[in-house]
Design goal:
Length: 320
């Protein structure tokens, strides 16, 4: 019997190598034993007529695909997946994003606090699906210094300015090193990264790297630093957790919904001094990093491929 076809609409394709693409690609793999899948950047009536459902990533950026599908196939499976910028910004004021919420049969959020950001009338049709990654053994860590890594393209939502200011506050600590991975989507932020490297010998901006190289850097680091101002459920958090690398992260709903309300590694948004203090404590206080790692290990079962696959199949059963 031919497997049913599911379309996955993603505003980003492979060359972007961002969160939307990683989600679309991974979902296509997880669904493959049960469904045929096609990742699409756009859609219009008449294309893929045999498709039984559409999973659309991003309420605003996929709004045209969502509207076209709903008009052409009223009542046929339609789920809208809410990422960080649409969940915590666009749905508040963008009419196209708000229309996407109304048209969807199901809404999907990627961490457990996501439903709270939605209008009350849409929460009953919302499902939480944690993203997943493969588990890796923690690499051996050097004892000579504390190695931290931040992963994320250089754009304002990721808060790179907080990392740069913290690096300057740590110029007197040669035993704390910071690597920063990500493309300069804003050229001005690239210039700021280069200026920080010139000022702070302990800070290195490595630019964009292939995904496998990024994961190896995470494995080798003592800590992942995540300065984001807005997140729907960051891939890099689960990759760190599932690599035995604990996290220092901003206290925003998108991070708390991944790591838990009682996690001990949060700092306020844009607070470089608080981040610098945390990094010093992790270097100077025996057992601090191990305590954070133990907390992360408790969350790791949420991010297994089997758990994500089961949630996806349950969603599609609802839709079809």
């Amino acid at each position: 019997m031919t497997r049913p076809l599911v379309l996955i609409a993603s505003p980003a394709l492979a060359e972007a190598n961002n969160g939307n693409w990683q989600t679309a690609w991974r979902w296509s793999r997880l669904l493959a034993p049960h469904y045929r899948t096609q990742i699409i950047p756009s859609w219009q009536a008449g294309e893929y007529p045999q498709a039984v459902a559409l999973l659309a990533l991003h309420a605003r950026r996929s709004a045209d695909v969502i509207a076209a599908w709903a008009q052409a196939h009223p009542g046929r499976g339609l789920a809208v997946v809410l990422t960080g910028t649409d969940l915590y910004r666009d749905i508040r004021h963008d009419a196209a994003a708000q229309r996407s919420l109304a048209l969807a049969q199901r809404l999907v959020v990627l961490q457990e606090l996501g439903p709270q950001a939605l209008p009350a009338e849409h929460r009953a049709k919302t499902r939480v699906i944690f993203q997943s990654t493969t588990t890796r053994r923690s690499a051996d860590k050097t004892g000579a210094r504390l190695r931290a890594v931040m992963v994320g393209h250089l754009r304002d939502e990721k808060g790179p300015q907080t990392l740069w200011a913290a690096a300057r506050l740590l110029r007197d600590r040669p035993d704390i090193r910071i690597d920063h991975i990500g493309e300069a989507l804003d050229p001005a932020l690239g210039e700021a990264a280069r200026a920080t490297m010139a000022d702070c010998l302990a800070y290195r901006w490595l630019g964009g790297l292939p995904h496998e190289a990024v994961r190896r850097h995470i494995q080798r680091a003592h800590l992942l630093v995540h300065c984001s101002r807005m997140e729907g459920g960051a891939h890099v958090l689960m990759e760190a957790v599932c690599s035995g690398t604990p996290v220092l992260a901003t206290r925003i709903d998108g991070n708390v919904g991944m790591l838990g309300a009682d996690y001990g590694g949060y700092f306020p948004v844009d607070d470089s001094a608080a981040l610098a203090r945390l990094l010093r404590r992790c270097r100077d206080e025996s057992g601090r990093v191990l305590a954070l790692r133990a907390q992360c290990e408790l969350r790791a079962p949420l991010f297994t491929p089997a758990a994500e696959q089961a949630a996806l199949l349950a969603l599609l059963q609802d839709l079809t």
